[in-house]
Write a structure and sequence with these properties.
Strand 5 and strand 6 form a beta hairpin. With 299 residues, the chain is α+β, with helices and mostly antiparallel strands. 47% of the residues lie in helices and 20% in strands. The protein contains twelve helices and ten strands. The protein has three domains: 176 residues, Sandwich (Jelly Rolls), CATH 2.60.120; 46 residues; 55 residues, Homeodomain-like (Arc Repressor Mutant, subunit A, Orthogonal Bundle). The strands form two sheets. A six-stranded antiparallel beta sheet has the order 1-2-9-4-7-10. A four-stranded antiparallel beta sheet has the order 3-8-5-6, covered by helices on one side. The two termini are 27 Å apart. The relative contact order is 0.14.
Length: 299
């Protein structure tokens, strides 16, 4: 049995039903889904996502990232995405693990691990790559500790450190280091992202945001887009639309109220932008999602 198959076997054993499953390992979450799902908004935090079985697609701005068994994604900022499982069956469900990054552990390792050779990679906030044998072996060692609770407190941090080491020493190493930066353009973009998250329902200008993070408007626009695949105002619009969708779906509020609550002054403008973003008018989209309510949001 190869390493990836063993990883899938451990995940399947510890997640018997569709959905997310927290584990005894503090920053590890396991996911199982036995059917394809409708595209749904999600928020990716700085984390690793390793797919052991099945396929999914994640859209960030205009970029589409495709996951397959043995592929992993690295996220270095809080990003609004739309994702869905595109290949899964009850006999062969979609299985993956998420590892949230510990910035302290990552920062300590980044000081000890030399940067990977070659030109610095662009600070894009999300990537998808093929997992090497070293990363897969480390992930399997970490997951096996779920069956050895006595060893988990001692060996768990070591396995987690090895996973972070493999990422830092690999093709995503330069991007991983951005999480630890407190100075420079990358850190300023991170502060801009955090500011928009906090103030997503308020009107703002690029000029105001640039002042908040200490950049020129043109530099902010350029570096923000390189990280998120969106301009700051497009990023805010994505957050607002996803927020409104959740309000209508979960709380059952009407279109006009949702539009107003997330910061739109015009319901018609909200409906136009919603349709462009999600492919259907708000009421029809929510009705479709409710008809698919048995599908967990797992992407």
């Amino acid at each position: 049995m190869d390493t990836l198959t063993q990883i899938a076997s451990v995940i399947a054993r510890h997640v018997s039903r569709d959905g997310f499953q927290a584990t005894a390992i503090e920053r590890v979450t396991l996911v199982r889904c036995s059917t394809v799902t409708v595209p749904m908004p999600n928020v990716y935090r700085p984390q690793l996502c390793l797919v052991a079985q099945g396929h999914k697609e994640v859209t960030l701005g205009e970029r589409v990232f495709r996951y397959a068994p043995g592929r992993y994604g690295v996220v270095t900022y809080d990003l609004p995405v739309i994702g869905h499982v595109v290949e899964a069956t009850p006999d062969k469900p979609y299985l993956c693990l998420y590892l949230d990054f510990d910035p302290v552990m990552l920062g300590e390792l980044a000081l000890r691990v030399p940067p990977p050779p070659g030109a610095p990679s662009p600070p894009v906030g999300k990537t998808v790559s093929d997992a090497g044998s070293g990363l897969l072996d480390a992930a399997l060692r970490l997951l096996r500790l779920l069956d050895d609770p006595a060893a988990l407190p001692v060996l768990g941090p070591l396995a987690e450190q090895e996973i972070l080491y493999r990422l830092l020493a690999g093709p995503d190493g330069a991007r991983m280091r951005h999480i630890t930066f407190s100075q420079g353009r990358v850190a300023q973009v991170g502060r801009a992202i955090a500011w928009i998250w906090k103030n997503s329902r308020e009107r703002f200008s690029i000029e105001r945001l640039a002042v908040e993070v200490g950049m020129s408007p043109s530099s902010l626009h350029e570096h923000f887009r390189s990280v998120t695949a969106m301009t700051p105002l497009q990023f805010q619009k994505h957050l607002r639309l996803q927020d409104a969708r959740s309000l209508m779906l979960v709380q059952g509020i009407d279109v006009a109220t949702a539009a107003l609550r997330v910061g739109y002054e015009s319901t018609s403008q909200f409906s136009r932008e919603y349709r462009r973003h999600f492919g259907e008018p708000p009421a029809r989209d929510i009705a479709r999602l409710r008809a698919s309510a048995g599908f967990p949001v797992v992407a």
